[in-house]
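Model it.
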Amino acid sequence: MTSEPTETSHATAGNHPDPRLRDPQLWMAWALLGLFTAFVLLLGGERFSAASSYRWFAQVVLFFDSEASNGDIWFFFRWARKLAHAVEYAVLALFAFRAARLSLAHPLGRIVLVAGLFTALVAGADEARQSTLGGRSGSMLDVWIDVVSAAVALGVLVLLRVRRVALGASDRITSPAS
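Modeled.
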């Protein structure tokens, strides 16, 4: 008497990959994360160093305020660069969150941790690379700005998700039965 393999046997179990791997949203999330990570790293190159970008920034400021002093322009330039760091890494953290959420079957806290660690890794690697470039210098302050802005973005995302779940639950509890 021979027995045929069942669908749950080891003979056929390897033929059925995780259905999440066929989800186009998953592939799109990882593609966007990869592209945005490459964009962030490109911005960390010599082409976008302070020395290279100050000239065009000064021209923009002078267009709007032709009487701006070099000190004024430098002040706004420094703040604009730090704000750019914050925005870049907040967006990077959100892309990392989406890719991790679609990939991992873990609680929200672990997904946030994975997204935050990924963002911190990119921030550290980018600043370490900048310290080796002639026209750039790596900065622990920038890593700190990057990590804090990623944490704030992820925290706001979690608060919005928790609030949505809480509001959804309260709507179900207080709505009259149909």
